[in-house]
Amino acid sequence: MAYDRNNIFARILRGEIPCSKVFEDEHVLAFRDINPQTPTHILVIPKGEYESSDDFTATASDAEIAALMRAAGRIAREQGLAATGYRLLANHGSDAHQEVPHFHIHIFGGRNLGRMIGKPAG
Question: Which of 8, 28, 37, 90 could join 71 via S-S bond, C-beta 3.0 to 4.6 A?
Answer without folding.
Answer: 28
